[in-house]
Amino acid sequence: MHQTGRPSVLVIGAGLAGSEAAMFLARNGLSVTLLESKAIKLNPAQKIPTFAELVCTNSLKSLDPSSAHGLLKSEMKSMGSFIIECAEKHAVPAGDALAVDRDNFSAEVSHGLRTHPLITVIDREAGDPMLLKEEYGCDYVIVATGPLTTKPLEEWITQSLSGNDFYFYDAIAPVVDADTLDLTKMYMKDRHKPMEDGGDYLNAPMTREEYYAFVDELARAEKVPPKEFEDWKFFESCLPIDLMAERGKDTARFSCMKPIGLEPDINGKWPYAVVQLRKENLLGSAYNLVGFQTRLTYKEQVRVFRMIPGFAEASFIHLGSCHRNSFLNARKLLEFDLRSKKFDQLYFAGQITGVEGYTESASMGLYVAFQLVRRINGQDAIRFPVETAIGALVNYIMTVEKPCPSNINFGLLPTVEISKEQWRAGGKKAKKQLVAKRAQDVFQTFTSTLR
Fold first, then answer.
1. Burial, 298: exposed, middle or buried (Cβ in 10 Å; 0-12, 13-18, 19+)?
2. Domain range 171-324, CATH architecture
């Protein structure tokens, strides 16, 4: 017990999930010891020393309440999400998406955690979480170390809980200096919006010849090999652009390079494929190549990506890379409140539980902290309805037979019946709107019973 006289919690990891959990606990009057190793050493995917770093992209995806990602944000916000609060404060234009200035967002999260009177930040690498819990005099511990859990803690987890099946690979997209682009070969436009409305996305259109020359080079370019004794295990919704090229010449054109909703370009021509760029900051001085995660060596990235129209003299602020992502078999190892079946005072939150994505990870931090507050207040753990976004995510990781990280999507929520008239009028869009409306109603009813 700490100065509040109430049970205290050790949170290991100050990424999105750990930051969210720590602040929720503190705002509910609990003392928190937050352990983070960034000040000692950055891992291979990290660039800045502050908390809640967004390593792959600066987008937290859609805000549209009729989308799965919008639903999740809405639920988190209604629960008092610290991460959404900080993201909205440092948002940059991105159409219907919530994108942020990475540095300012991370700095805001760090300042909030480091200055909260009930949170003590310790710069230290974690090992055995149960020993650390005792060392810091805490009653419970949440492990929220994300996709790149450090070696000592990973060894404890694999030896004590998970065995060897504890990883897959993810990849990071490059960021380009806006001043080095030839903007005469690009245009601003969001998908499915009129050209005259402008847009938040910069588009580099490609002809058929340019596209096939580009994917040929992507496929043959030199890649960084996996580390010894490790195989590539990529998340299917976040494949490296070069792996798409290897899978088939048209794979990228039906994925991140699809021209749908972006034609015609500024010259009235319909592109065969398009490279989309999204602002990294409010100044628009840097752009993220949307969907361009890659295994290419740095030298090859510069060579191949300069084939993109407008990129002939491009200078990259940082280049793409691949990194190892660690996650548990939640169905086998955790209870539905994400408490360890083996260690009753140990919880897991974030990507390590088997979700994928920024808001998904943060939502699991919020979910675990919510359940732990209930436990400390003498209440039973409570299942979130599977019709809600948070409930659907938890249900997925707790029921999927073969663990495979997933973003939030409508496929995780129960289907709804739709009339022939509704289908003819709106098709899949109408069905998604019905699922979204049901989710909103169910979540409102569910939370109203908790007050």
1. middle
2. Beta Barrel (2.40)
CA distance 174 to 314: 12
Contact 240, 170 (CB under 8 A): no
Phi and psi at residue 383, in whole multiples of 5°? -80, 130
What is the residue whose two structure tokens read 């290419």? 296
Domain with CATH 2.40.30.260 in the chain: 171-324
Predicted pLDDT at 265: 62
Question: In the predicted model, is pLDDT for residue 388 greater than 70?
Answer: yes
The residue-averaged pLDDT of 261-276 equals: 82
The C-alpha angle with vertex 156 and arms to 150 and 161, in degrees rounded to 5, equals: 120
Q: How far apart are alpha carbons 58 and 60 in whole angstroms?
A: 7
Q: State the Cα–Cα distance between residues 153 and 128, nearest whole angstrom.
A: 6
- Res. 48: pLDDT tops 80: no
- Residue 306 corresponds to which tokens in the numbers above? 């300069």
The C-alpha torsion from 407 through 188 and 65 to 102, rounded to 10°, is: 60
Give the Cα separation of 95 and 89 in Å (integer): 16
Q: Are 72 and 364 in contact (CB under 8 A)?
A: no
CATH match of 9-167+326-448 with 3.50.50.60: yes
**Residue 229's pLDDT band (boundaries 50, 70, 90)?**
very low
Tokens (6 digits) for 69 = 């990602």
First to last CA, the chain: 26
pTM: 0.76
Residue 422's contacts (CB-CB under 8 Å, 6 or more residues apart) are 430, 431, 434
CA distance linking residue 336 with residue 68, whole number of Å: 21
Instruction: Tell me the residue type at 265.
Output: D
Lowest mean pLDDT among 178-192, 194-208, 248-262, 378-392: 194-208
Give the pLDDT of residue 198: 75
Q: Which residue spans of the chain are classified as CATH 3.50.50.60?
A: 9-167+326-448
Q: Which two tokens stand for residue 153?
A: 């803690």
Choose from 62-76, 258-272, 275-289, 297-311 the range with maximum mean pLDDT: 297-311
